[in-house]
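Hey, resending since the last one bounced:
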Amino acid sequence: MPPPGVVGGRLVSAVDAVVPRPLAVLRLLVGRGAFRAGTQVAAAAPATVWDGSTFGHYAAALGLCGWLLLVADAPEKAALKTLARVRRIGPAVAGLTVTMAAAPVAVLLAVLVPVAVTAPLSTVTLYLAAGAWSACTGLLMTVSGLHRVRGRPVLDTMAFGASGGVVLAVTAATLWIGWPPQAHLLLVLAGTVAVTCAALAALPRDWLRPAPASGGGRRLLPPLARATWLLGVADLCDALCFAAVYLVLGVSGQAGQSGVLYLALLPAVALCQLAIYLLRVAQPATSRRLRGLAGRAGRAHAARLLRWAERAGAAVAVACAVLLRWAPPDGRAASPGVTGGLVVVVLVLFLTVMYAAYLVENTNNDVLAATSAGAFAGLVATGSLAAVVVPWSGAAGGVAALALGVPVKAHVMRRMLISRDSE
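The structure tokens again:
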């Protein structure tokens, strides 16, 4: 018997199908928790068997390629927003969503396979495997989001529980056998691809069939692609902020600090990913609630949060200037307390601005440029600050650049919202 709100795999009542009960949310958190536990172990445990240089290259590959997860996951955000507001065209929207999310994964796998066969231990294989794993995980997130929308959240739990099990099993084998990073990532990728294929196969057939190039498919593609781009570019820029810091570390001759930065940010990244997931679970209901006139109240609340982030950022800038003024020139000797305090600052500012952007994104499509422009400004600010402070202060300087880039994003976003609402 199909779940409530679904008839023959077609979305009938978006509201009934997209508001999970507390017990369902708990099950979802269990599945994602298993996956996050696996990735946390996989990120840190290899440091016990690899030397510092090897682990540094592994951490740099994961850090630089992490943004590819957002490329494949970007269609999910647009689909969750759109499916909450439509009924009859649900399958067509879902088909386009799967196509857009799967495209980067297919391209990366097509490039990786011949490279891995001819040069399995090369640096190119390491980075391609890390990128393909990130993109495939993003595709799995998109597919799981579609399962939640159609009233089957248990498939989300099963998919990410299985994916977490794959990561833990491969990590255990790596610790036991001593596999190099390339073999470790290739095996994790293979398991993730298998889980993703199973999740795709569980979707209704009409959700997997791309919309025809003529008629409804041609009309749907431009607005959905635009929404996907504007919604996804903000998340992409946020991820590129981290990649920019890793890039500056490598260029400035402090590649060994990549491992320090990666381990320092792990807890904060895990909490941010949990918050993002909970917002995704609630997004269809939020999208429905903030339609029309209610959207103005949502944007006003977002503007207040952004204003607070700007003021907090100004105070953080003063504190960072004082701390970094007397910081030792060698980033490896930076105080763990200073780095840890900056990580907490990044977490608080990022979560505040992220929630404000979430409210803005789920009002109407006319204001999506505010979130994307703000995110781009934050990326430019983070990269510029990192180029100045990272060569001087290493990992601690990288975290400081991340902390100071968020208020810039908040300022640009708030000013654009004021301009838009005034019009």
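The radius of gyration is 21 Å.

Sorry for the duplicate.
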